[in-house]
Specification:
two-stranded antiparallel ribbon; 5 strands; alpha+beta; Arc Repressor Mutant, subunit A; disordered N terminus; 2 domains
Length: 131
Amino acid sequence: MIPNKNKSKQRNTIQKNLVRNAVQCLNHPDAEEVYEAVRQRRPHISKATVYRNLSQLTEQGELIRIDTGQADRFDSRTIAHYHMRCRSCGKIFDAPLPPFERLEDRLGDTGGFLVESHSIEFIGLCPDCKQ
């Protein structure tokens, strides 16, 4: 029997649960924020373990990776939704807008470009930075 190399990615370890819970409790954290939150509960955990588990949870579809152009952020809300990002502090919030179904169908001729998904990000100032 050939061992399943992906089996370790499927295991539900203590570390993976801690990383998942940290993302759920924090507001769109970056990897460093997740690491700091997990370290509070498990002081000897390494950054590599946290980063590896963030990658695995993202690959498994349990988290969404948000590319901000700087530090990636993570979201445990995996249903389709849009984000608002503060241009001053960088915080990310869920946008109160239902996703457009099949928006890519409205593009028309894409010149052979295969659209697989879309993302919409609203950029502005959060209430704290607006003051």
